Amino acid sequence: MDFSLFPFSLTLSNGSLVSPSISVHPLRGSAVDIHPNACWKQNGITVAGRKENGYGTDQLNNPWGLFVDDEQTIYVADPNNHRIMEWKRDVTNGQVVAGGNGQGRTVVAGGNGSGNRLDQLDEPTYVFVDRDHSVYVSDWNNHRVMKWSKDATQGIVMAGGQGRGNGHTQLSYPRGFVVDQLGIVYVADAGNDRIMRWPKGVTQGSVIIGGNGQGKESNQLNWPFGLSFDRHGNLYVVDRYNHRVQKFNIASNA
C-alpha cells in the first residue's frame, strides 16, 4: 500500500487553533531496501522551488506534504498558494495539478453547510497520488478530503465537506490519510480526536478508532495527525498531543 503522511506542529493561541508551523516528518515506507548502515550526502539539491517564496510556477510558499512517485515526479502541497504542484524530474518549473485559483471563500447556500468551490483549496496540507495519477488532498480549512483526477479542472469531495463538525458527514481539521486500492479513505480527523473510514461514493463515514472524547486512555486520542497500516492490517496512529504512537490490532478482516 502506497501512502504519504506528513505530521505537522500546531500552534495554539489562547486555546484557539491557528495556522500550523512547519515540521515535516515523513512516515511513508520506502519501496527500496535501505541498508541499516546507509549514509547520505550532506549537501542537498533543490528539485522544486527557489530560495524566495512566491506564486510563480518555479516557486512555493511554505510547502508542506510531499509525495514522490516511481518516476521521481514530485507532488507537493503548497498551502499558502492554495494549490498542489507537480514537478517532473529535472525541470525548473512545476505545474498546478489542483487548486491555484485563489483562496476559496466559505459559502453558505441552501442550508447545506459551509464549503468552497470544487476548483479551490484552502490550506492543503497532505497529498497522496494513486496509480491512476489522481491526486488526493487533505483540504485543512475546508474540513474535507478532495480527489482530483488526472487533467481534471475541479475536484470531488471524498470525505467531509459539510463544514466543521463532529457528525458522520463532517470532519474537523483533517490531517493525514490513507487511500487503499478500493478507494476507501481512512483519515485522521484531528479536531474530533478520531479516525474515520469513508468508502468510495458514500456521503458519510464511520468512526473506526477514537471518538470517545479527548484524553489519554487507550481508547482515546488527542489530535491524531498521521496513520499507517502494516501488512497485517494493524493500524498505527500518530497521537500528537499525547506524544505517542498508538497501535490498534485488527480484530477481524471479514
From TrEMBL:
Give the GO cellular component terms, alphabetically.
extracellular region
Question: Which domain of life, per UniProt?
Answer: Eukaryota
Tell me where the transmembrane regions lie.
Answer: none
Pfam families in the cross-refs: NHL
InterPro entries (alphabetical): 6-blade_b-propeller_TolB-like, NHL_repeat
Residue ranges of the NHL repeats are 59-90, 120-151, 215-251
Q: What keywords is this UniProt entry annotated with?
A: Glycoprotein, Repeat, Signal
Q: What is this protein called?
A: Uncharacterized protein
Organism per entry: Rotaria sordida
